[in-house]
Each structure stands twice: as C-alpha cells, then as structure tokens.
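Response to reviewer comment R2.3. The reviewers asked that we include at least one raw input/output pair. We reproduce the pair for TIM-barrel domain-containing protein here without editing.
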Amino acid sequence: MNSFRIYCTSILLFFSVSVFAQKASLWKEVQPGIWKTQIGNPHHISLLQAAGGHALHNALKLLPSSTFPLSKEDIKIQIIDKKIYLRFPLSQEEQVFGLGLNFQTVNQRGRILNLHVDHYGGKDNGRTHAPVPFYVSSKGYGVLIDAASYMTVYAGSNVRADAKHPAPIQDRNSDKNWDSQPPSDVLEVLIPADGVSIYVFAGPSPMQAVQRYNLFNGGGYLPPKWGLGFTQRVPTLFSQDDIIKEAKSFESHQFPLDFIGVEPGWHSASYPCTFEWDPGRFPRPKAFLDTLSRMGISANLWLNPYVSPKSSLYAGIKKYTGSHLVWNGIVPDFTMAQARNLMKAHFVKNHLDIGVGGYKIDEVDGYDNWIWPDVATFPSGTSAEQMRQIYGLMVQEMTSSWFKEKNKRTYGLIRASNAGASSLPYVIYNDYYSHKDFITALVNSSFIGVLWTPEVRASKTAEEWVRRMQSVCFSPMAMLNAWSDGTKPWSFPEVEKAVSDVANLRMQLLPYLYTTFAQYRFEGKPPFRAMNLVDGFGFKPAGTKGKVDATENPYGMSIKNDIKDQYMMGDFILVAPMFAGEKTRNVYLPEGKWYDFYTGKLVGENQKIQISPSLDKIPLFVKDGALIPMVPVHRQAPKDGQAFALEIRHYGRKAGTWKLYDDDGRTFNFEKGAHSWTEFGVKLGVNGQWEAFPKQVTSKANFGYLPDITWTFMTK
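Raw output as returned:
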C-alpha cells in the first residue's frame, strides 16, 4: 500500500512539473520585443503592480524589431513543493549584469545572490536597497522575474549533472589551470512562491534590452530642472530661521542651491513620525516655504512612514496597519486604498497645499531588527515578506501620484526600491560611505532602472572632500547631506574654489543633463550608464572574430575585469572620478576617438590610457563628433520667463548631430506635447571649414534659451 502511495505521489509530481514546463513555452509578446509567461498562481501583488508603471508602446515600437532572444527549449521552469525553480541558458563568454544595486561587483556571473530588500551591509550578497530581479546579458537580452518574494539567484555559479555544455574535467594534482569553480552553462533561480510572471526583453544590444525594460515600466523619470541643481540637507534640529540663514549663506558664497533638505526636526515628533510641523521650530510653515520659494529654493521633507500615536492621523489609520511596530510607530498597509487615502489627505493638507516640493523617505529597507519581522501580518493579507519587497515602491508611487495630481514635478530620496521603479521620482541613498563603492553602485544602477546618488557627508582631508564633491556633481542628484554636523561646501577653504568650480560646471551643463534625462523618459536610456552598455565595450565590436586580446581592446578588458570606476553621462561624456590618495588612474576608452573635455585635445581611441589629473578637475572625456550644449554659470535652475545664452561645443574631427530637449521644467505639460526637440549639427563645408546649424533657437522651441547660439569648436 505504501509503495502504491509513493508511486501515485511520484506520478502527480511528475504531472505538475511537466505541465508547468509545457506552459513555460507559451511566451506571449506583450509589447514590441518583450515576451511574458505566467506560471502557477501569481499573488495579488507583484513588484510591477506596486510600482504602477504603464508601458510606453509607441516608444517601444521605435526600437529595432527582434525575435525571441533565447532558446525556449533551454528555459526550464518547475514548481516543486510550492516553490518555483527557473533555469536559463548561459553561453561560455556571456556576462551577467544587474540583479540589484550592488556596490562592489558589476559582472554577476558566478555569484550567488539572495535578493532581499535591506539596509546595505557592505557585502554584495543580494541584500541591498534595490534587489531588482532583472538581469541583462552581454549577449543583448534581459530577463525580469516579477514576484514580490525573496529569491535566490545562482548566476552561473553551479554546474548541473545534466549540463548541455559540461565543464571540463580537471585534476587538481596535475592541472595548473584547475578551477575551484568550474564554469556553469545556466543561471538558476529559486523562488519560495507558487506563482510568478516572467518577462524576456530583446536587444539586440544590452543597452536596447535596458531601454525596453525602462520603457515597459513607463520610461525614466524626468526631474524638474531645479532637481538637477544642488541640494543641501541641513542639521536635524534646524528651525525655519536657521534654514533661511543657511540659504542666505549659499547666496553670499555664490554657491548653487536649488532645493534644501529639512531633516527630522520639522516633525512635532519623529521616530515615529507625526508628519505635522513642530510649532516651536516651525511656527509659520507656509510663510517659511513661501520665503524659500522667493529665494528660488524648494523644500524637501525627511520622513519615515511609521505613524506616531501623537499624530492626528493615528486614530483613523490604525485599523489599516500591521501587527508589529517600527520605531514604535504603526506601519500602514499601503496595499489598502483606505490607508493610502488617509495618508494622502494628511500630507496634502499639511505639506503639498502649502508648497512642499518633495520627500526624503527613510527607513523602509531594514535591518531585520529595525523593520517588521517576517512573522508580521497585515490586514490586506499581504505577507510580511511581500511587504518588505514592495514597501519602498509603494511609498514612492503613492507620494509621486499626489504631486502629479497637482501637475507639479517632484524629486526626492528613498532608501528602498525594486523592479519597475524607473518612472518614479526618487534617487536611492544610504549610510554606507565608501567612495569607490558609491561609484560602482552608480554604474550598476544603470542596469536596473533606478537612480543612485554618491552623496557627500564628511571627509578626512581636503583632497577627499573635493574628490567626493566632484563625483556627486556628476550623478543624478548633487547632494551634500549635512544633517549630522552642519558641513558646508566651503568647509575646506583650500579647495573651496575647486568645489565651486565643479558645482558651477554642473549648472553650466544643465541643458545637456536635462536632455539626457529626457532620453531616459522618452527612449529608456539611463542617464548615467555602465561602460558595458556602450557599443564596442559591453559586447564584441562589429567584425571582431574569435578571442579578444584583453590587454588591448576594451571589450576584452571588460571580460577579464569589472570596469566599475568610470561611466558615461549621457551619449557623449565619459566620467572617470578620482579618489583620495590616488595620483594616477587608468581609463578605458571605447571605440572611436576621445577628447579631453576641458582642452579638446585627443587622448586616445579604443584603448587603456593612464592619466594624472590635477586636484581641481574631475577627468572628463568626450566622444568624437559630440555636441555639448552649455549655458553661463548660474546659481539656480531657470525661473519662469528666464532664458540663458546657449553655447554648443563641438569635439573632434567628425560631423555630428544631436537633439536638445526643453520644456517648462516644472509641470507634466510635456506629456501633452508642450516640449521641444531641436536638432543641432556640425558638418564640413565645401571650403573645408566647419559649418554649424542652426544659428538660432527658434521661438517655437525656446522654453529657456535666448535665440542666438555661440558655437565653439574645441578641437583645432
């Protein structure tokens, strides 16, 4: 009898596995170049549902048409004991990027990651602020696993007995090339759930796979112009008078300042929060915000979303909260409309209606002993695990929707995010403070549709200070976080000019940077990009056959090494930050000629170079044929009716064209057509001289620029 039961159980298990394996082959093209399959019983909430994005179909149609980029027969999906086992093929030289906001590694091939929202602990183990279950292959495709679950990814780390391409058998006793980790031909994922949706994104390049992913999630976020200026976060217990004084000190130093971060002391109580103004430090909050507005400054409020018993919100929202407290505050269940509506009414009345510009949302990540435990329950039936994976997404989506209803763009900070977040107006930050690892995180953010800032808090030396300030000025948010000690940009007088210069350079580059973010919104191109997303770097250059010499070609070098300390800002500018204590560094140049940003001098092409820059400049290199639009030095983003003179720099010996984007810089009217793309170009005339066009910005396209253009040819 027992044998019969075992036999029947085996038959049922085989049947369930084979059925789901068969369903895995039923891939449906849901958007151009994007395929989906659904396995088992997906839960009532997923990552993409929490993020709330909507695919930009027309933009996706503009990308190259493509067929399904993987062998469907080599994709294996099983459900065993209410757990999902996924298997995707990997070729021998294939690299794997993405799989979360990692701080120390770029190529994830050969690693094991436990994807789990957490406060980053200094290890690339999958527990991070954005454990996005999306990977990009160097072969030019992407895979997303849309489940609000913890999951373990074996990214080519283990060899199967039934491997299609078995690893070579080696003898450690005699083979000098013996490898402790034999190469695997599969990427495998274990998900403790009985249902999941899987998406495959075609390329044909890695960049185009990332573009499809971002466009599928609503396109990248286009910040207000003031969001791309400089921000200072003030000490915790600053009053409204202290903050006004702080803003005036920036004026007296002629230092850029577009928005100011107001830390926990604005609450009448924090940890947990009331979300109501402290009457002692902020007796007249609207007058305070109006004063900042007249100074051209937006206010960004710190919060964590855990409600204090002292808040007037507490009694009404309590029934829609979880079983456990965080910082002794109740945890709203934002999967429930009732909780969202109560929070909205409170925030709109106390913040948005009087002029608050955005939020810094803290403590939605972990550690485990800070946030709710996995035994917690929530009134919607959403599990604690699911809530952990989506909470940061839900808070981002909810707060951003309030601003959009007012037709007002916002820009803020968040400590936890996940898949589908590209269209949300938040930049990730944390308390970890390794400068080099911050740059690696910036590189990795480009694969997974999130933004990251290598914020500045403190430095031991003037050299470290200026190097950190240079990096943050070439990131999605130029932020000095002085919440703890009141540090100012000019705190090291010996490098005050160098710090001022790089902040001013960011402001001069606003037309280029704003257009780069517009590309993120309309084309899905990340504004700050890993070198592995650049043609001729992340995959073999056209015409390259066989193995590539890793000592000569950037592609070959990227196979052997993580290129994690340099990146692209937009289409044309390569950023190579310096770090304290370093006098020289290597820079890996992609295909084509590259020129020094400051001088226009040729520095190399398709090669590794060594540079020894001065302390006062961050190394920047520009692609041959590039057009870089700039404006004069200015402290703040343009106001209504204000226009700047436009200079366009041309670099190199190649002709080139580029489209400059503009709109009002504040509202969502651009989504209804109130924006412009103006094409600029340089070509060689019949007399052998450069000819530039157009000579003026037309009034139809002129949101923030004076008509006349100054053309500067950097390469003589």
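The chain has a mean pLDDT of 92. DSSP finds 14 helices and 34 strands in the chain. Further pairs are available on request from the corresponding author.
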